[in-house]
Specification:
By secondary structure, the chain is α/β, with parallel strands linked by helices. It contains 10 helices and 16 strands. The chain folds into 2 domains: about 90 residues, Elongation Factor Tu (Ef-tu), domain 3 (Beta Barrel), CATH 2.40.30; about 160 residues, 3-Layer(aba) Sandwich (Rossmann fold), CATH 3.40.50. A 7-stranded antiparallel β-sheet has the order 6-1-2-5-4-3-7. The protein has a 7-stranded mixed β-sheet with strand order 11-10-9-8-12-13-16, sandwiched between helices.
C-alpha cells in the first residue's frame, strides 16, 4: 500500500499528489512513469512521475480527472492509500546538451514536461518553455516551469491568459528568432504533438514527443500501446515513451486511440464520485 502524503488541486479536474514510494523516489529519472492501481479490482493506469524527493521517499503525480479511474483517484485524500504504484518504468528521457531547447507542454502534459525541462537546464541548455491550455483556469505549473527556464511563455486557446492561440504559434516565433532552436521536447494531446512535429519538420529541428497516454499494462506484454515509428512497430511502454516526432504515424495513432472511447464512457458512467455523494448526504 502506498499512502497519499499530500493532495493539492491545481486546476479544475487537475490534482497533484505526493505519494510515499521510497524505491521509486530513489530510482526515478526524468521521463519515467509508474503504473497505478487505486483499489482492488481496478484498472492500472500509467502516470508520469512529475517530481520526486529521495530524502523523503516521495514522488509527485499530477492527475487529470477525465475517466472513471482518474476520477476515482482524484477523489482520494491525504492519508488514503493506493493499492499499487509500480515503477519506475519506461526509458528515461534522452537528456543532452543541445544549446537552445524549446519545451512545449499542452494541458496536463506540462506536468510530464516539468522534470524534463529541469534536467535539460541542469545539463547546461538554454531552456525556453511554452505552456498551452484551453483557458486560464487550466494553466498549471507556470511558476515551476519558469523557475527552470531562461524564458517561459503561456498560450490559451480562448485568450483568457497569456497569448491567444496555440503553442505552435509561440513555437514558430521561437524557431524564427535569431539563433532559432536546436531541439524541441513536446508533450500533450496527440493532435498538439502532431502539430508541433509538422511545424518543426520544415525547420529540420530534432523533436521528441511522449506517447505514454496510449499505454495499458506498461510492460510490453499486452501490445496495446503499439505505434508505428519510421515504418516499424514499436511499443510505447518499453521502446519509449519518447520517440522522434517526425517519424511517428500520428494519424494511425489517433485512430487507434479512439478504439475504446465507448467503453471508457461506460466505465466513467459507472464511477460514483465520493465527494458528490458526501455533499449530497450532508445536504440532506
Amino acid at each position: 500500500m502506498f499512502p497519499i502524503i499530500d493532495k493539492k488541486v491545481l486546476a479544475p479536474t487537475i490534482t497533484r499528489f505526493e505519494i510515499k514510494a521510497p524505491f521509486v523516489a530513489r530510482k526515478r529519472r526524468a521521463g519515467n512513469f509508474v503504473m497505478v492501481r487505486v483499489e482492488e479490482g481496478g484498472e492500472r493506469i500509467p502516470l508520469t512521475i512529475a517530481d520526486g524527493n529521495p530524502a523523503f521517499g516521495t514522488i509527485t503525480l499530477i492527475v487529470q480527472a477525465i475517466g472513471g479511474t482518474t476520477k476515482l483517484l482524484c477523489s482520494k485524500n491525504t492519508g488514503d492509500m493506493l493499492l499499487d504504484v509500480v515503477g519506475p518504468l519506461g526509458n528515461p528521457t534522452p537528456i543532452e546538451k543541445h544549446g537552445v531547447v524549446a519545451c512545449v507542454g499542452g494541458g496536463v502534459g506540462t506536468a510530464e514536461l516539468y522534470p524534463i525541462a529541469k534536467a535539460l537546464k541542469e545539463a547546461g541548455n538554454r531552456v525556453l518553455t511554452v505552456i498551452g491550455a484551453r483557458s486560464r483556469d487550466l494553466v498549471i505549473l507556470e511558476k515551476e516551469m519558469a523557475g527552470c527556464s531562461d524564458e517561459s511563455f503561456v498560450t490559451t486557446d480562448d485568450g483568457t491568459y497569456g497569448r491567444k492561440g496555440f503553442v505552435t504559434d509561440q513555437l514558430k516565433d521561437l524557431l524564427d528568432a535569431p539563433g532559432g532552436v536546436n531541439a524541441v521536447y513536446a508533450i500533450g494531446p496527440l493532435p498538439m504533438m502532431k502539430a508541433v512535429a509538422n511545424l518543426t519538420r520544415s525547420y529540420g529541428v530534432e523533436t521528441l514527443v511522449s506517447l505514454n497516454t496510449i499505454m495499458v499494462d506498461g510492460t510490453g506484454m499486452c501490445g496495446g500501446c503499439r505505434v508505428t515509428v519510421a515504418g516499424q512497430m514499436k511499443f510505447a511502454c518499453v521502446d519509449g515513451p519518447e520517440f522522434d516526432g517526425h517519424k511517428v504515424d500520428f494519424d494511425e495513432l489517433m485512430m487507434r486511440n479512439r478504439t475504446y472511447v465507448d467503453l471508457e464512457k461506460i466505465s466513467d458512467q459507472k464511477h460514483v464520485c465520493r465527494l458528490t455523494g458526501a455533499s449530497q448526504e450532508a445536504a440532506s
